Amino acid sequence: MIKGMTLVREVASAEALDRLNHLLLSLGFEQGKGWQDTEGRGTALLAPLGNLELMTGRAPAVPPILIEVMGLDAVHAAVERWMLANYRSEEVPALLSKPELTHWNSRLFTVKLEDGLVLGFWQSENPLHGKPVALEGDLSSKGMRFAIVVARWNAVITDRLLQGSLDALYRSGSAKADVEIVRVPGAWEVPSAARTLAETKKFDAIVTLACLIRGETAHYEAIYNEVSRGIGQSQQDTGIPHAFGVLTCETLEQALDRAGIKAGNKGFEAAIAAIEMVSIQRKIRAEEGGK
Ligand code: DLZ
């Protein structure tokens, strides 16, 4: 039912309002819808988030208007420049404090403006502060079992994709015995082999590798659509993650670029995605099991 929160504060004059409005916009507030009538006017400054904090047990150690920022030192420098432009320079040190560590693992500075209006600017020292809590997969593949299905067609490319996948798996902890490589004639055969492997339930994830080049592939779109649909369907039907390392390129040069020359190695990326998906599946199941 709650839509938002508005803090209303009177300032001394129209000039003060414009000056402050200008400062806060330059720091990153968004201009909201203001108002004006015969007696006065208001300006709305929008922040991405707001919250109401209630406390008890001791008096607040902070001003009632607290603005959370990124880049506290840059904000402090901008406020200082603004203060020097609007106040006598000898007044500024008493009005603008230096950023200091707080007891809640943050840094904060305050600025006293006209009519006792005090703003506190702060930044958390915790890099994870404010990040949405999310389950994420780890990138260790130790103890996971993988099958890699690789098409022989365009082997000059797919061999490089395979090397990329193996590199990713071994470097993240896989034992050679935990990685099975299955070669199939071309991209068209990849979904069927992937599904057969997934159905054995011997593997935690399947990595699929192939390369379709438009110039040499008749009905390129039709083949690509069927290959991607088949791999996706196998993944959904079996519940085993299938990483998609099927290149679709206009030219051989483009394919080479994506197989380790200029634009990364899609085989490496697919294997990393597979590891992450196995890890995330395990975490989701562990959470479910713990409920
Ligand atoms: C036939 C064919 C063609 C024209 N192009 C490719 C390609 O670019 N990439 C690929 O992986 N495979 C290609 N193939 C082979 C088919 O995928 C399939 O292996 C054969 O049609 C046999 O079913």
What's the number of domains? 2
* Spans of at least 5 consecutive residues with low confidence: none
Class inferred from helices and paired strands: alpha/beta
What hetero molecules are bound to the protein chains? ligand DLZ
Distance between the termini: 29 Å
- The H/E string reads HEEEEEHHEEEEHEHEHEHH
Give the number of helices: 8
Under CATH, the topology of the largest domain can be stated as Rossmann fold
Helix content: 25-40%
Please name the CATH architecture of the largest domain. 3-Layer(aba) Sandwich
Numbering strands along the chain, what is their spatial order in the largest sheet?
5-8-7-6
What is the radius of gyration? 29 Å
Q: What is the typical, i.e. mean, pLDDT?
A: 92
Strand content: 15-25%
CATH superfamily of the largest domain: Lumazine/riboflavin synthase
**CATH class group of the largest domain:** Alpha Beta
Write the layout of secondary structure elements.
Elements: H1 14-27, E1 30-31, E2 35-36, E3 41-42, E4 45-46, E5 65-68, H2 72-86, H3 92-95, E6 100-101, E7 106-112, E8 118-124, E9 146-151, H4 155-171, E10 179-184, H5 190-199, E11 205-213, H6 220-238, E12 242-249, H7 252-258, H8 266-289
Parallel strand pairs: 5-8, 9-10, 9-11, 11-12
Antiparallel strand pairs: 1-4, 2-3, 6-7, 7-8
Helix pairs in contact: 4-8, 5-6
Bound molecules: ligand DLZ.
The site of ligand DLZ has 15 residues, from β11.
